[in-house]
Each structure stands twice: as structure tokens, then as C-alpha cells.
Specification:
Layout lengths: L1 H17 L3 H48 L2 H18 L2 H5 L1 H18 L9 H4 L3 H8 L4 H18 L1 H12 L25 H4 L2 H4 L58 E2 L5 E2 L15 H17 L4 E8 L3 E8 L1 E9 L5 E10 L2 H5 L2 H8 L5 E3 L8 E6 L6 E2 H5 L2 H9 L3 E7 L4 E5 L6 E4 L6 H15 L5 E6 L23 H25 L4 H4 L11 E6 L2 H7 L1 H14 L5 E7 L9 H6 L2 E4 L5 H8 L12 E5 L7 E7 L2 H12 L31 H10 L5 H8 L3 H24 L7
Parallel strand pairs: 9-18, 12-15, 12-16, 13-14, 14-15
Antiparallel strand pairs: 1-2, 3-4, 4-8, 5-6, 7-8, 10-11, 10-18, 16-17, 17-18
């Protein structure tokens, strides 16, 4: 269809080029009509004048043709018609289906030879056979050898034309068929009622149709069924037979009670005695298949809409994703023509120059394209990274979800899982490709999005992905849930370094403890002469190895309101120094404003994910670019990795409540009685952490002298006399007031002395 559209556009361009030469078109059309009329009149006149002679000559020629070719003349006429069709429409079918043409030619030659065996009496073919002289030449000697040669040529042509059906037919003929068991005399037949409602030959393929119906017996041994989720099993054939029902078969009695071999997924046990959950804990993916005709229709609408605004473009690639479809548009050319007069005095248009369509002209038509496609909003990625085309992302008519299992079982995630322990299954891109990330290289993740955009579901899928591949000896989690209802579902897993934190003041203590733990780990690395956690854990047992620590914060805004300065300072220090110690931060917020996501926090969190936000300001705050305000919600997100210059659109992974419950129950069954790693009650505040008191201002002594000399002073007075700025003068004034208030308090607290 793309080829057809290209031809239409080129013809439109040609018509546009010929439009100025109106005189030439007006003269050429009557001339062509007159020439055709003269040609018809000439043919009629020749037929009237020379018709009888041509008929007599034709009868003689027809007799000679029948003698030479026989009925093979019909085959020659068919071959000539096919050749004319190929010359008229092009040799494309010959290149695509060369075997059909070659096999048909061989089959026709073989049939032509076999016609030479027939001699109908009383006709012209009595002496020359139905094949004529050519058929006799193909047959050769009219005996067994000639017949065998002609049949071999015809069979060879059939094999060349239809190799696959003939091969399947041959396999069905030579395959041995199992025998039906017959019930002994005197005993009732083990076969039940024959199934007549469904024909096995119409539903199942040839291999399954050849199998006999299986009897129903009560004494047959029960055969265990293998689980459907094993990756090494072949997919069921009903997946590719939509709308058909398979016949229900009953188990067949085996000739001997041999136990069936059932492939069982063995649980993976770590060195520390922990069992890693199998992938069967997660549900199978159920993705929606989109209509290809609808995609082609949208591509045609995009081309027509661009052409209506004077922008030449061609859709050269269509990438279908779960939520959006990306149409790759290749910009066309801006052509300039000039009038040229040839030797005959006719004017024509000659192309002088051409330049590429600017990308800005396509991006400026985003609202017009959305109107033409009847879409709520579209996003234009100009250009697509690594490709010389502009990506137009259009929402699908039916939204699909991306299951966590579908990304975990992908090749991209498996390769990353082999390299790192903290691989994250993020989702699928606009083209349906799986996208994963490495938390150790991020090394921290900042997530933002409005309410209901899929932010919390993303956190749940990240935690579940970490729990699917890491034991408590390798990973410890710290969960902060100010909402009290989101992350508390993971309260029973043994990976928690402390119970789920729901109070903002305790969340601040968690940050303080992480700072202390980071400093302790650096001291341990210095003793072991290790640079990072990988080299430290290289030759250590699970009990001695240092686990990774991942802090997950569901709402950063609550922490910033509780203690803004301390939270910002602590987060920035952890983000700068904690990577080598195996401490990673995953922070989410639903209010991506500058007072929550400050410049320091944004600079230390290079990897960011943005879900749907309300305005371009919020999109710029989290991603430093626009685009997040056009997202569709329900897991539609923009992923900005640290090594990329622009965000990539993904459909985030979805994990249901039932999947989380099964995963938590799997780990809760292995929970051991261990002491909590973090004791939040023992964490000291900033006052007990040994902070030094603020140093006294050097101008404080001179300010005291001025206070003794004058009965009344102020900050402005100190600013003028000491020649300092107002903020510094105000701080000195506050210190003087505090010093004056301390002796007064001592006098009030001193008890009265009795008079003697």
C-alpha cells in the first residue's frame, strides 16, 4: 500500500508541475482523440476490402497451425497471454513467484507430450495426433519410455509449483498410524460414544487428524499434566486458531502402567538456603493484537494531512506498541521549477533545485494531525534517535497492558539479568520492544506523575522485579509509605531491613541511618582495600557479604514538608556518595514542583521517569523538556536514562494484586527469626550527632561595646556603625538579645534569700 501511495504522490507532483502549461494540455487531448478515430476507421476499411482474402488465408494458416502444434496451440495462447500481462504490468510477480511460472511451463510441456498419444479418427489429428508435430517430438518414441518421460516432466512441474503441499501429503502417506485397540470378546467395549458433533479433520492439522479416538476407561492410570507456564514447552496450537474449538479428548489406556515423565520446574536455591520464586508466580501475558488495515489507514491519513498543508512526507515505517503506534515519516522535498521553451516552441517545467522539508514544519502540525486522525493528542519525536525520520506517536484505539512476566521473559532482560543483580523490568516501547534498566548504573531513580497516572503501580512492579531475582542475603529494602496503604502489602517479606515506615518523622530517621550506614561501609571498604561493593563481596560467603540497600519512598512531598533542609541535604549526600556502597534510592512524588524536586535533587538523580502530568511546567521540572503533559495515563510514561539525551516513551509494566499477594506469600513462608537491621529508636537526631555550634561573629565584641555605650540599638544602627550587611547585622542583634535574656532568666530562677 505504501508503494501505491508513493505512485499517487508522484503523479500529483507531476500534475502540479504540468499545471502552468495549460495551452499544451488543451491542444494535446483533441489530437489524441483524432488519432484514435483515424486508426479505427483505417482498421474497418482494411477489414471490408481485404476481409474475404484474409479469411481464406486464415483457414489455410489455421490448418497448418493445428498440424504443427495440435491442441498444444491452446497452451501457447495461454503462455502468450501471461507474457503480455507481465510486459504490461511489470515483472514483479515473476520475481516473487518464479517457481509457479517455471513449474507451470514444465507441466504444460509434459501434458503436450501426453497429447501425442491420442489419435481421434475422422479428424485432421489422425495422422499427427492431438499433440501435433511438436507433441510427437516431445514424446519421442510412442512407447513406455516416451510416456515415462512425459509424465516425469509433468510431475516435476507440479513439484516445482507446489513444494510444501506435496511434501506434507507425502509425510502423511508414509507416517505409520497407531493401531486401534479392540476389546476382547465377552467384555463390554471400552469405547464410549463416538464424537459426531465436531469433525477432527476440520479443526486439527493432519498430524492430529490421523490419531484415533481414545477410549474412556476407569482403570487407566492418571497422567499428571505438566504446567502450562514452562518456557521449554511448545506453545499450544489453539493460540493460532482463533475462533475454533478443539474437541475434548479423554485419556487413553496405556498398554503398560509406565509412569509419565512430567517436566517439573526445580526451585532455585541460593547458597544461603533461600528459594528464588519461579516465574509461574506471575500471570501469563495477555496482549491485544491490533488491526493492520487500521494502521495502514492511519498512515494514509497522515500522508494526506501533510500533503494538504504543503508538506511532502511518506510513512516508511510503522511500529506498533501496546498503547501507542509510532509512524515513521520521512520528510520529502521542496522543489523549485522554471519554465523552459524547447526547440518546437513548447513550454515545459524543469526542476531547478530541491531542499529537504524542515522538521519544524512537521512538528508544528501536531494539532492538525490529531484532528485528521481523530486522536485526543499525539506526540511527535523529531527525529527518532538513530533514524532519519520523524516519529508520529498516535494512541491506539484499544489500550493494552504490559505484564511484568512478558518483560522478564524477554531476551533483553535476561541478558541484563546475567550482568547485574538489580535489573529492572520497566516496560515496552512504542514498537513493542522490551525495555529494562540496571539500578546499579542509574544509580538512583526519580519518579513523578499526577494522581492515577500509574506511579504507584510502577513502584510495585519494580519491587516485585527485585524480589523475583534476589534473596534477603543479596538485597535489603527500606520502604517509606506516607500514604499507609500502598507499600504496606510488602510488610511480611524477609527482605525488609526495618518495618514499613509510615510516619514522616521516622522517615527522616531512616535517611539519617542510611548516612551512618554509608560511612560505616566506606570504613569497611578501606579495611578490606575494596573500591566498591562488588569487589568487597567477591570472595565472601552469603553471611559475610554485604547486601544491597534500596530505599523506596512513595511520596517525597510529605518528607520535604516535615524537614525540608535535612531531607534535601541528606538525599543529595546519599545520591552523591552511596553508589559505591550498594545503597540506591527510588523516590516518587505526585507533585513535581520546584519546592519538592529542587535543583540539587534533580542534579543528583540523572535517571528519571515521568508519568502523565498536568502542565508543561511540571514536565520541564522533572524531565527538562515538554511532552509529559501529552501522555495518556494508565502506565504511559517517558523514561530518561542517564546516558540518553532525550526521553523514550514506554508503557510501564503492570502487576496485579493477586500476583503481589502470591509473591509475598512465597517469601513470607521462608521468613526467619532475625533481628531488625535498623533500629529507628536508637537513631540520634541532628543535635546528638556531634554537630558543632555556630562560631561567634568577629564583630560581636564591637557590637557589645556599642550596646554598652547606647541605651537603644537596632539592626540598622549596627549596619551603619559596623559597615556590614543587613542580614549579618540582624544575626548579631539576635545574639545580643539572647545574651541579654539569659541573665534575666537566671535572676528569675534564683530563690529569694530570707532576711536575718
Amino acid at each position: 500500500m505504501a508503494k501505491k501511495r508513493t505512485v499517487n504522490r508522484s503523479s500529483t507532483t507531476a500534475r502540479a508541475a504540468e499545471r502552468p502549461s495549460g495551452n499544451k494540455a488543451s491542444v494535446g487531448v483533441p489530437l489524441r482523440v483524432a488519432m484514435r478515430l483515424i486508426l479505427v476507421i483505417a482498421v474497418v476499411v482494411l477489414a471490408v476490402l481485404f476481409g474475404p482474402r484474409l479469411l481464406a488465408l486464415g483457414a489455410s494458416v489455421w490448418t497448418q497451425l493445428l498440424i504443427a502444434f495440435g491442441l498444444g496451440l491452446i497452451l501457447l495462447i495461454v503462455a502468450l497471454a501471461v507474457l503480455v500481462k507481465l510486459i504490461w504490468s511489470g515483472f514483479g510477480p515473476l520475481a516473487r513467484h518464479w517457481n509457479v511460472f517455471l513449474g507451470g511451463l514444465a507441466f504444460g510441456v509434459g501434458i503436450w507430450g501426453l497429447l501425442a498419444l491420442l489419435r481421434p479418427s475422422g479428424t485432421i489429428f489422425w495422422n499427427v495426433t492431438l499433440g501435433g508435430h511438436v507433441g510427437q517430438a516431445i514424446l519421442g518414441t510412442p512407447g513406455a519410455w516416451g510416456i515415462a518421460r512425459a509424465v516425469a516432466i509433468a510431475v516435476l512441474g507440479l513439484i516445482i509449483m507446489f513444494p510444501q503441499p506435496l511434501l506434507q501429503m507425502w509425510r502423511g502417506l508414509v507416517r505409520p498410524r497407531p493401531r486401534k485397540s479392540v476389546a476382547p470378546r465377552g467384555e463390554p467395549s471400552a469405547y464410549g460414544r463416538v464424537m459426531t458433533g465436531v469433525s477432527s479433520s476440520s479443526v486439527l492439522p493432519d498430524e492430529e487428524a490421523a490419531q484415533p479416538e481414545r477410549p474412556r476407561t476407569a482403570s487407566a492410570p492418571e497422567v499428571m499434566k505438566a504446567p502450562d507456564s514452562l518456557p521449554d514447552l511448545a506453545p499450544e496450537k489453539r493460540t493460532f486458531r482463533l475462533g475454533r474449538k478443539e474437541p475434548q479428548t479423554v485419556p487413553a489406556p496405556s498398554p503398560a502402567p509406565v509412569p509419565a515423565i512430567v517436566p517439573v520446574r526445580e526451585p532455585v536455591v541460593t547458597m544461603g538456603g533461600w528459594q528464588i520464586p519461579p516465574v509461574d508466580v506471575l500471570e501469563k501475558p495477555k496482549e491485544i493484537e491490533l488491526n493492520r488495515e487500521e494502521m495502514d489507514k492511519r498512515a494514509r491519513l497522515i500522508e494526506e494531512a501533510l500533503e494538504s498543508y504543503g508538506v511532502e512526507g511518506k510513512v516508511v515505517q510503522i511500529n506498533t506498541g501496546p498503547t501507542v503506534t509510532q509512524f515513521g515519516v520521512e520528510p520529502g522535498w521542496v522543489r523549485r521549477f522554471r519554465k523552459v521553451v524547447d526547440e518546437k516552441g513548447e513550454e515545459r517545467q524543469e526542476e531547478v533545485s530541491r531542499t529537504r522539508i524542515r522538521v519544524d514544519r512537521i512538528t508544528a502540525l501536531s494539532n492538525d494531525l490529531a484532528l485528521a486522525l481523530a486522536a485526543p493528542s499525539i506526540r511527535i519525536e523529531a527525529p527518532i534517535p538513530g533514524k532519519s525520520m520523524v516519529g508520529v506517536e498516535v494512541p491506539n484505539s484499544a489500550f493494552g497492558s504490559v505484564s511484568l512476566r512478558s518483560v522478564i521473559e524477554s531476551t533483553v532482560f535476561q541478558k541484563m539479568q546475567a550482568k547485574t543483580k538489580l535489573a529492572l523490568a520497566l516496560g515496552k516501547g512504542a514498537g513493542g520492544e522490551a525495555v529494562s534498566g540496571d539500578l546499579t548504573k542509574m544509580p538512583h531513580l526519580l519518579i513523578a506523575g499526577s494522581t492515577g497516572s500509574g506511579k504507584t503501580v510502577c513502584l510495585d512492579s519494580i519491587i516485585c522485579c527485585l524480589l523475583m531475582h534476589n534473596s534477603p542475603d543479596e538485597l535489603r529494602l527500606l520502604l517509606v509509605d506516607p500514604k499507609r496503604v500502598e507499600l504496606v502489602a510488602f510488610a511480611e517479606i524477609p527482605h525488609l531491613a526495618a518495618p514499613v515506615v509510615v510516619e514522616p518523622d521516622k522517615a527522616v530517621k531512616v535517611l539519617r541511618w542510611l548516612n551512618v550506614e554509608m560511612d560505616r561501609r566506606y570504613r569497611e571498604f578501606a579495611k578490606a582495600k575494596a573500591r566498591n561493593i562488588e569487589s568487597y563481596n567477591k570472595d565472601r560467603t552469603p553471611g559475610e557479604a554485604m547486601p544491597y540497600l534500596v530505599l523506596v519512598v512513595d511520596e517525597l512531598a510529605d518528607l520535604m514538608m516535615a524537614a525540608f533542609d535535612e531531607v534535601e541535604h541528606t538525599l543529595c549526600r546519599l545520591a552523591q556518595l552511596a553508589r559505591a556502597t550498594g545503597i540506591h534510592l527510588i523516590v516518587a512524588t505526585q507533585r513535581p514542583s520546584v519546592d519538592v524536586v529542587t535543583g540539587l535533587i534533580k542534579a543528583n538523580f540523572p535517571t528519571r521517569i515521568s508519568f502523565a502530568v498536568t502542565s508543561q511546567v511540571d514536565s520541564r521540572t522533572i524531565l527538562d523538556t515538554v511532552g509529559a503533559e501529552k501522555l495518556l495515563g494508565r502506565g504511559d510514561m517517558l523514561y530518561l536514562p542517564s546516558e540518553a539525551g532525550r526521553p523514550k516513551r514506554l508503557q510501564g509494566t503492570f502487576v496485579s494484586d493477586a500476583e503481589m499477594e502470591r509473591l509475598v506469600q512465597f517469601w513470607a513462608g521462608q521468613r526467619r527469626q532475625e533481628k531488625a537491621i535498623v533500629d529507628l529508636d536508637a537513631v540520634e537526631g541532628p543535635e546528638g550527632a556531634g554537630q558543632k555550634a555556630a562560631a561567634a561573629d568577629p564583630m560581636l565584641a564591637e557590637a557589645r561595646k556599642l550596646a554598652e555605650e547606647h541605651t537603644q540599638i537596632s539592626a540598622s544602627f549596627l549596619q551603619r556603625r559596623l559597615r556590614i550587611g543587613y542580614p549579618r547585622a540582624a544575626r548579631i542583634m539576635e545574639q545580643l538579645e539572647m545574651e541579654a535574656a539569659e541573665p534575666a532568666a537566671d535572676e528569675v530562677e534564683q530563690p529569694e534569700q530570707p532576711e536575718t
